[in-house]
Amino acid sequence: xxxxxxxxxxxxxxxxxxxxxxxxxxxxxxxxxxxxxxxxxxxxxxxxxxxxxxxxxxxxxxxxxxxxxxxxxxxxxxxxxxxxxxxxxxxxxxxxxxxxxxxxxxxxxxxxxxxxxxxxxxxxxxxxxxxxxxxxxxxxxxxxxxxxxxxxxxxxxxxxxxx
Length: 163
Ligand code: GDP
Ligand code: MG
Fold this sequence. Notes:
Elements: E1 4-8, H1 15-23, E2 27-30, E3 41-47, E4 50-56, H2 68-81, E5 85-91, H3 98-110, E6 114-119, H4 127-133, E7 142-143, H5 152-162
Parallel strand pairs: 1-4, 1-5, 5-6, 6-7
Antiparallel strand pairs: 2-3, 3-4
Helix pairs in contact: 2-3
The chain binds guanosine-5'-diphosphate and magnesium ion (MG).
Family: Belongs to the TRAFAC class TrmE-Era-EngA-EngB-Septin-like GTPase superfamily. EngA (Der) GTPase family.
Binding site for GTP 1: 9-16, 56-60, 119-122
Domain EngA-type G: 3-163
């Protein structure tokens, strides 16, 4: 099975941390093109016996010259358009923000298989955030800690189920 997963979500939820954990040193390509794809990073991910291409997106922080909503849409939609599935990440500690809800709407609109991930789920402080993520209507959130490497077997199961 060969497929591409785009990690999308607002800045600071932990997308790049998960990307780095999944890819390790096997970053295949740093895409330096101008415009919406300039911050896209692709790598070969391994998770259990799954090998797939994973795409990290920068979110909003590095795309000048456009409205906030426009940048958000462009980044997210470009990455999602080329992907077979979407890993939509929220921050279980921060709680949902308007930006999360805007991303969720774009993710839903893309109409592709989605795995909802509530990152930063290590420890008890995060359980309310995982529960809140249910309310996005994108299925059952998978609680993970990208930084501590927790929940990755649940992520594996969710990816297998979604694709
Ligand atoms: P991105 O903007 O979505 O790519 O987020 P980053 O991967 O750059 O991470 C943003 C911040 O969240 C950094 O300070 C990370 O160290 C932190 N972070 C990422 N994953 C976790 C996690 O599982 N738990 C906690 N507590 N912090 C995390
Ligand atoms: Mg990042």
